[in-house]
Every structure is written in structure tokens, then in C-alpha cells.
Automatic annotation (TrEMBL):
PANTHER family: CATALASE, CATALASE-B
EC number(s) recorded for this UniProt protein: 1.11.1.6
Organism taxonomic ancestry: Bacteria, Bacillati, Bacillota, Bacilli, Bacillales
Domain annotation Catalase core: ranges: 32-420
Cofactor: heme
Stretches of the chain forming a coiled coil according to its record: none
Protein family according to the UniProt entry: Belongs to the catalase family. HPII subfamily.
Protein name: Catalase
Species annotation: Paenibacillus ihbetae
Stretches for region Disordered: 1-45
InterPro entries assigned: Catalase, Catalase_AS, Catalase_clade2, Catalase_clade2_helical, Catalase_core, Catalase_haem_BS, Catalase_immune_responsive, Catalase_large_C
Length: 685
């Protein structure tokens, strides 16, 4: 029998092994930031000239100093309600001509990502489907360090300068005297802000459009909002804006639908994303870039650094450079989705900043926010935030420290450890800021080129279809109808008369204000890319409620197979849960009872034929409301034989029927086409 004490000196306990994984040896290593980004210089802060002020965008200085400030050691204020998923990104072709970023060089490189979608205004307990901007934040775990593309589902924002961000958020949040309303902009303080801060006008047009009511996170565009820089190995720079284009197209809910969903399923968007990934219908988004050479910075009639302006795609085309696929749900919502920390300052070599004053402020505020929310300066050590690139620096201690650093050295320069970890020159991968020439007096002003607040808002209005315009007008009337102070309603109408006289007049008609005297538009420009009517239209992953009961007609299984082969998801809705049997053979499992299902949870409705089936469905009075509501929401509706009797109308836009003897294959194809169209606006409801 072996001596139980033998070789103890060479063994490690389970606890020892656990601690080993957090033990880091800095000796002989390259100096990096906490995101794994190799640093080219650690002696001097970034300044506007050798004798000028230190610049706010010096993320390395701020990370280093902030960590030191917090070495002795809640719910997000905005974007509190979020949902996330894991995935991967691959570039289509090398972007080496434009950027040094390694993850954009080789199409065979698979870069892990985590994406967090969110609403902006509401608390964690609010509903998914409120009218709001949606966050679309992506963390790329690259070999050079973490890169965060922190954006929204709208390409512009409410303000031009970060100094005003607290003002905007205070105005849109529940009013402080009574904490009402939750997750809504339909109240006095928000519209008072809009009326008195006209830089918000363009963004308000987007927020009042159907873009604020996404059908799904899978069918929602994403934008980097700000102007960034690509910088290549030769030091040549291009201004760049980032876009995420969903492969399924960009689609929305209708307003009545969102209000009902907020009560019937407040988790509608997050449930949709979770179920799609679990079923293998992985959401896909193509990464697009708009690029402008530095020498063309002043070629346009708008300032390309203004975050309240877009670069119209007709002037600066979007180049699709890669695809992101979300293929894995989280294991633990809190540890991953809730603890993930994004920051626009988490960049990699080849991606740099511009003087967009809103971006400049975000480069400070995001780290500052994480310190309060995640309890200290070590949030980068949480598993979801850890870069895959190694981390070596002289930052120590602080709350929630997980790394165990060996040795006596925690400073730069040093002799004890051979002056390591050591900075890495730019030619070897260290991050170097773009050497933009900066000169001028220190002032609190904005460029005159930022002062046009109406032209692009007018272009947005001009670019909408008549259906989209009516939805915008209705949104304004609903929101302003909740505003108690008449003078604010009048002021808003007067402000939007500067966008378009017809728009302001139509708004005024519903809210009891004096119509404006102005007519015409601030711009005659049109950008077809802004209208969702021009988006991709596919039937893939659309969810169809199949209303059926015992005795359903023999044609139903054939049609279901046809739909499923086209990528449509079919779910049986009946009077009761259980198994239903066909007229002559076959059986189907009921997924939802009419008591627990509503048409707002589906994209389309199919009513099965069969006298007995229809009779059983009609035993539940709700079935007629189910179909009627889908009809009123402009959704595609199909019916077979006797099922036609349940329809509010047997014909019309998006209504497909099959009578005895009709070609079922043609019927199925017509229904699939109607599903792909998403909505049928020509229908009279």
C-alpha cells in the first residue's frame, strides 16, 4: 500500500488548480490594456499638440487612471431591458486596403461575438414591444483584443453633443414627481425637450416611424450611429459608418399589435430570439460599411461627423463585407447578458475615432457607468467580458479582482522585471492613435455645419410610402395626445412645420392645435433606402397559426408540408390542447389552445377545412376575434374549403382561399408569397 503522504509536494489541490487559471505571470510579456489590446506607448497621455490639453479619447490613459482611482474597493440607466446571444462573424473578403484590423483580413477567420439587443427608455420590467429605440451592441472577441460596436437600430440620435445626454434621458424617462409613465415618450417632458432642442427633430421622425416597433430582433437593422475611422497599415484613413443588415429583411409590428403584445406577451422579442436559436433558425446579419476618403470630408451638404445626420446610401453606398450568425443562447442571463460591459472605446488597431462630439463623450461615460453598475474597475475579468487575447499590465487590486498577479512589480518603467510588461511598437501590433492634426482655441461651441436640423428629417418624410407616412402621423397624434400642456403640443407642431408643412398640418388635425402657416418641405431629396417597403421579403421563419379541430380536411397535411419546406413555422391552434384527428386519417398535436393564444403572436393565419373542424373551432367564440384581429393587422390569411366561413372577407389583399377542386400546390405557393410580403396594406379594414 502506497504511503498516502508520498509526493504531496508535487500535487495540487482542486482549489490550487482553480486559482491557477486566474494566475498571470507578466514577466517578459507585451503591455496590453484590459481588453488585450497591445499598447505602443505608456509614458505620455494623448494631447492636442505637445503643449496642448489631454484628449478625452485617450482610452488607455483613462482606463489606467480609472483603475487606479478605484483600486480600493444596478440596473442600467438606459438599455436596462436587454437580451443577448452568442455567435460568430466572418469577413467576406480582406479589408486590408482600408484597415489593419486583423479580424477583417482573412475570410477563414472565425471571430466569436456576443450581441445584446435592448430597449432604451424602460426599466428591466418593461415590455419588449414599446415604441422605442433599440440597442444593437456587438462584442467581437478578436485575437488583438475585444472590439465593441455599440449601436442602435436607428442610424442617428437625438442630440449632437454628449453634454446633452443627461438632459435627453431625464426628459424621456418617467417624470420625477410621480415616476410616470414607464417606457414611454408620450408625456410632457419629452416633447418639451423636443420642442426646445430642435437637433432632435430628425431622430424623432425615426422614432415615430415603424422602425421603433420591430417585428423581431432578427428583422431589425443595426447602426454604429457615429462616424469612425478605418486606418490601414500605411496610415491612410477613411471615415466609416457601420451597418448591420438582417438577412430576413427589416420588418415591423403595427401599433395596435404592440400594445396588445405588451400585455399578452411582454417578452415577445426575447422569446422570438431564444426560440429561433433553439430551433436552429440562426439569425444572420451582414456587416456593411460606408466609407469616405479623408479628402472628401467636406464634399457633402451635411457634416459627416454630425450624429443627427445619415450618409444617404444613394450618395455613399453600403458595402457588405461580412456576416454574423447568432447560434447559441446564454447559459445564464445574469452572468452573460446582464454582466456584459460594452464601451465604444474598446477598439483594435485599424479602427479609430473621429471628433463627433457625441462619440467623444461616450468614450468617457461608458467606463464610468460600468464602475457603478458592475461594482468596480475589474469588470473586464467577468467571464463574459474576458478577451481571448492575453492581458498583461500593471493594474492591480480593486473590488472583484479575480487575477492573481505574481511578483513585486506593478509599475512602469521598472528594472526588476526587465521593464516588462513592455509597450509594443505600432509596426508589431501595438495600438497607435491616428495622427490627426488638431488646432484651434478651446471653446464651448458647435460647428455651424451642425446647425441644419430639418433637411434630413424632411428627406426621411419624403422617402416614406403613404402607409408609412400615415403611421408616422398617427404616432405623433398618439404621443402628443398624451401631452397635458397645450402650449407644448402647439410648439411641437410649429417646430415640425419646418420639416414639412403637410406633416405638421396632419399632426395638428388630431391634437387640437392651430395648423401651421408654413407649407412645403425643408428638402426635396428622397432616399428609397429609408423606406421599409423596399426591404428584403422572405417567408423564412415566419410563424403561422393553423386553426384546426377534429375532422380537419385531408388537404391540410399537404399544405403544412409545403409551408414547412418553404421555411415557414406552423403551429396548431385549437379549442383545446391535445391531439386532433383528421377527417379520414392522420393526427396533429395542438401547440396552443385558443384560450392561451392570440393572433398578435403570429405572422399569418391558416384556417383548415372540414365541417367538423370548423364547427369545433366555432364552439370557442374567440376564434372569430382571432381571425378578425389578424385581418385588421393586415396579416396574410388563408383558408381551405369550409374554413373560408371564418374569414371576415373571402377576398382581398393578402387573402388566399382554396375551394374543393382547386390546385393545392398553387394555393400553397400563393400563401407563401403572401407571408413573405409581411403586411397587406391595400386591404380595407
Amino acid at each position: 500500500m502506497k504511503d498516502s503522504n508520498s509526493n504531496n509536494s508535487s500535487k495540487k489541490t482542486i482549489k490550487d488548480q482553480q486559482l491557477d487559471q486566474f494566475t498571470v505571470d507578466n514577466d517578459g510579456k507585451d503591455l496590453t490594456t484590459n481588453q488585450g489590446l497591445r499598447v505602443s506607448e505608456d509614458e505620455h497621455s494623448l494631447k492636442a499638440g505637445v503643449r496642448g490639453p489631454t484628449l478625452m479619447e485617450d482610452f488607455h490613459f483613462r482606463e489606467k487612471m480609472t483603475h487606479f482611482d478605484h483600486e480600493r474597493i444596478p440596473e442600467r440607466i438606459v438599455h436596462a431591458r436587454g437580451f443577448g446571444a452568442h455567435g460568430f462573424f466572418q469577413v467576406y473578403e480582406s479589408m486590408k486596403a482600408f484597415t489593419r484590423a486583423k479580424f477583417l483580413q482573412d475570410p477563414s477567420t472565425v471571430t466569436p461575438v456576443f450581441v445584446r439587443f435592448s430597449t432604451v427608455a424602460g426599466s428591466r420590467g418593461s415590455a419588449d414591444t414599446v415604441r422605442d429605440v433599440r440597442g444593437f451592441a456587438t462584442k467581437f472577441y478578436t485575437e488583438e483584443g475585444n472590439y465593441d460596436l455599440v449601436g442602435n437600430n436607428m442610424p442617428v440620435f437625438f442630440i449632437q453633443d454628449a453634454m446633452k445626454f443627461p438632459d435627453f434621458v431625464h426628459a424621456v424617462k418617467p417624470e420625477p414627481h410621480n415616476e410616470i409613465p414607464q417606457a414611454q415618450s408620450a408625456h410632457d417632458t419629452f416633447w418639451d425637450f423636443v420642442a426646445n432642442n430642435t437637433e432632435s427633430v430628425h431622430m424623432v421622425m425615426w422614432a415615430m416611424s415603424d422602425r421603433a416597433l420591430p417585428r423581431s430582433y432578427r428583422m431589425m437593422e443595426g447602426f454604429g450611429v457615429h462616424t469612425f475611422r478605418f486606418v490601414n497599415e500605411q496610415g491612410r484613413a477613411h471615415f466609416v459608418k457601420f451597418h448591420w443588415k438582417p438577412v430576413l429583411g427589416t420588418h415591423s409590428l403595427v401599433w395596435d399589435e404592440t400594445q396588445k403584445l405588451a400585455g399578452k406577451d411582454p417578452d415577445f422579442n426575447r422569446r422570438d430570439l431564444w426560440e429561433a436559436i433553439e430551433s436552429g433558425n440562426y439569425p444572420e446579419y451582414e456587416l456593411g460599411v460606408q466609407m469616405i476618403p479623408e479628402e472628401d470630408e467636406f464634399r457633402f451638404d451635411f457634416d459627416i461627423l454630425d450624429p443627427t445626420k445619415i450618409w444617404p446610401e444613394e450618395l455613399v453606398p453600403v458595402r457588405l463585407i461580412g456576416k454574423m450568425t447568432l447560434n447559441r443562447n446564454t447559459n445564464n442571463f445574469f452572468a452573460e447578458t446582464e454582466q456584459i460591459a460594452f464601451h465604444p472605446g474598446h477598439v483594435v488597431p485599424g479602427i479609430d475615432f473621429t471628433n463627433d462630439p457625441l462619440l467623444q463623450g461616450r468614450l468617457f461615460s461608458y467606463t464610468d457607468t460600468q464602475l457603478s453598475r458592475l461594482g468596480g474597475p475589474n469588470f473586464h475579468e467577468f467571464p463574459i467580458n474576458r478577451p481571448i487575447a492575453p492581458v498583461h499590465n500593471n493594474q492591480r487590486d480593486g473590488m472583484h479582482r479575480m487575477t492573481i498577479n505574481k511578483g513585486p512589480v506593478s509599475y512602469h518603467k521598472n528594472g526588476i522585471a526587465g521593464n516588462t510588461p513592455a509597450p509594443v511598437p505600432g509596426e508589431y501590433g501595438g495600438y497607435e492613435h491616428y495622427t490627426e492634426k488638431v488646432e484651434g482655441r478651446k471653446v464651448r461651441e458647435r460647428s455651424d455645419s451642425f446647425k441644419d436640423h430639418f433637411s434630413q428629417a424632411s428627406m426621411f418624410w419624403n422617402s416614406m410610402s403613404e402607409v408609412e407616412k400615415q403611421h408616422i402621423v398617427s404616432a405623433f397624434q398618439f404621443e402628443l395626445g398624451k401631452v397635458q400642456r397645450k402650449e407644448i403640443r402647439q410648439q411641437v407642431v410649429d417646430v415640425f412645420a419646418n420639416v414639412d408643412g403637410e406633416l405638421a398640418t396632419r399632426i395638428s388635425e388630431g391634437i387640437g392645435t392651430i395648423p401651421p402657416q408654413k407649407s412645403g418641405s425643408a428638402s426635396s431629396l428622397v432616399s428609397p433606402a429609408l423606406s421599409m417597403m423596399n426591404t428584403v421579403k422572405l417567408p423564412l421563419t415566419r410563424k403561422v397559426a393553423v386553426l384546426a379541430g377534429n375532422g380537419y380536411s385531408d388537404e391540410l397535411p399537404f399544405v403544412l408540408t409545403q409551408l414547412q419546406q418553404a421555411g415557414v413555422i406552423t403551429e396548431i391552434v385549437s379549442a383545446k390542447l391535445g391531439i386532433i384527428r383528421g377527417k379520414t386519417s392522420g393526427e396533429l398535436e395542438v401547440k396552443h389552445s385558443l384560450l392561451g393564444a392570440d393572433s398578435v403572436l403570429f405572422d399569418a393565419v391558416l384556417v383548415a377545412g372540414g365541417t367538423l373542424s370548423v364547427s369545433e373551432l366555432l364552439s370557442e367564440p374567440k376564434v372569430l376575434d382571432f381571425v378578425r384581429e389578424a385581418y385588421q393587422h393586415y396579416k396574410p390569411i388563408a383558408a381551405i374549403d369550409e374554413g373560408v366561413n371564418l374569414l371576415p372577407s373571402a377576398s382581398g389583399d393578402g387573402i388566399v382561399t382554396a375551394r374543393e377542386g382547386d390546385d393545392l400546390k398553387s394555393f400553397g405557393q400563393s400563401f407563401i408569397g403572401a407571408i413573405a410580403a409581411h403586411r397587406h396594406w391595400l386591404r380595407t379594414v
